[in-house]
Specification:
Blueprint (H helix, E strand, L loop, with lengths): L2 H13 L2 H10 L4 E2 H7 L4 H14 L2 E6 L2 E6 L1 H16 L1 H7 L6
Helix pairs in contact: 1-4
InterPro entries: ArsR-like_HTH, HTH_ArsR_DNA-bd_dom, HTH_MetalResp_TranReg, WH-like_DNA-bd_sf, WH_DNA-bd_sf
Protein name: Transcriptional regulator
Organism: Youngiibacter fragilis 232.1
């Protein structure tokens, strides 16, 4: 599979879960420690770790270790990449609309 398609699949997988979307919403306020995210997201520690791995692997979130805790933040470059992928998909839509005719009118 094309590397661009793999990247797109990772990003869309990261965005297709309600818990991961809640994590992203929380991170919009700035960097958060995993311990704080656990208070905000209704999941256990191992489940949070699973979701964070998916978000980090997608490039949407960055992680940094500080002693015992891991701190997470939104990655602007990852979101720019996601937006570019969506823009690329959307570019073809007007052309598609021109080729489809509707006999409803």
């Amino acid at each position: 599979m094309d590397e661009k398609l793999k990247d797109a699949a990772r990003i869309f997988k990261a965005l297709c879960d309600e818990n991961r979307l809640m994590i992203i919403e929380n991170l919009k306020a700035g960097e958060e420690c995993a311990c704080n995210l656990l208070e905000e997201i209704p999941v256990g520690q191992s489940t949070l770790s699973h979701h964070m791995k998916i978000l980090v692997d997608s490039g949407l979130v960055s992680a940094r270790k500080d002693k015992k805790w891991t701190y997470y933040a939104l990655n602007a470059e990852g979101f720019a990449n996601a937006a570019a992928i969506l823009d690329g998909i959307a570019e073809g839509i007007p052309e598609l609309a021109e080729t489809v005719s509707c006999s409803c009118n």
